[in-house]
Amino acid sequence: NAGVTQTPKFQVLKTGQSMTLQCAQDMNHEYMSWYRQDPGMGLRLIHYSVGAGITDQGEVPNGYNVSRSTTEDFPLRLLSAAPSQTSVYFCASWSSLFPEAFFGQGTRLTVV
Amino acid sequence: SQQGEEDPQALSIQEGENATMNCSYKTSINNLQWYRQNSGRGLVHLILIRSNEREKHSGRLRVTLDTSKKSSSLLITASRAADTASYFCATDTGRRALTFGSGTRLQVQP
User: Fold this and answer.
1) Mean pLDDT in chain A?
2) Is A101 within 8 Å of B43 when comparing Cβ atoms?
3) Do A101 and B102 count as a contact with CB atoms less than 8 A apart?
4) Cα dihedral A58, B91, B30, B49 in deg (nearest 10)
């Protein structure tokens, strides 16, 4: 039982490049979310999903796309990376039965 | 904007002392949760209090909730060096995505 797995752990991108951050959970959780955390700050919600095929925007969605084709996976796509997207990205999941969120270990992204 | 704001932003205490951190939020909630983060790693769930509860205990943790003031507090009793971390409150407003505060950085001196 791995919990929430994020890949990669570290990534350096050049401005304008695109990439996908992967998130997978093996707990059959309905709810999944993506957050970004900037130095010394809390987590800001990018996108979230309440089930396969259903996604919605959080507070800072611009520049990011998501899809949820399966319960297990919730990838986050950066369309055209910008230095302002340099951050640590966290994926989280939880279920309606036990509403405590489980977090991945994060992806540290640097855009140069 | 952040739903929750923690106070203080940073707290330094000696081992054995109690640590209290506060969280204020803006809109109605279903529940409020507290999380711990060690040095940039993933967050770990500590405790959840529902909107109809006023106080909850879990080991050395005590959390209170005042919905009339839209505020919560987390008390860690008899702190240990291992409690050094950042602590975040998170609110569930019913949209099935948590909104986090800005966090309190706790340093426990041995």
Assistant:
1) 95
2) yes
3) no
4) 160
Both tokens assigned to A41? 């700050």
One-letter amino acid at A89 equals Y
Do residues B80 and B13 lie in contact, with contact meaning Cβ atoms separated by under 8 Å? Answer: no
- b vs e for A36-54, b when ≥16 Cβ sit within 10 Å of the residue's Cβ? bbeeeebbbbbbbbbebee
The whole-number average pLDDT for the span A91-110 is 93
**Which among B40, B96, B100 has CB closest to A48?**
B96
| B96/A contact by beta carbon, under 8 A | yes
Query: Counting one residue from A and one from B, how many pairs have CB atoms under 8 Å apart?
Result: 64
pLDDT in tens, B55-79: 999 999 999 999 999 999 999 999 9
- Is A58 part of the contact surface with chain B (CB cutoff 8 Å)? yes
Q: For the segment A19-34, what is each residue's pLDDT rounded down to a tens digit?
A: 999 999 999 999 999 9
DSSP string, B63-102: EEEETTTTEEEEEE-S--GGG-EEEEEEEE-SSSSEEE--
Residue holding tokens 């008899």?
Answer: B78
Nearest to A42 among B2, B95, B96 (CB): B2
Q: Quick one: pLDDT at residue B94?
A: 84
User: What is the reported pLDDT for A99?
Assistant: 82
Burial of A108 per CB tally in 10 Å (0-12, 13-18, 19+): middle
The reply to whether residue B41 touches residue A48, judged by beta carbons under 8 angstroms, is no
pLDDT at B1 over 50: no
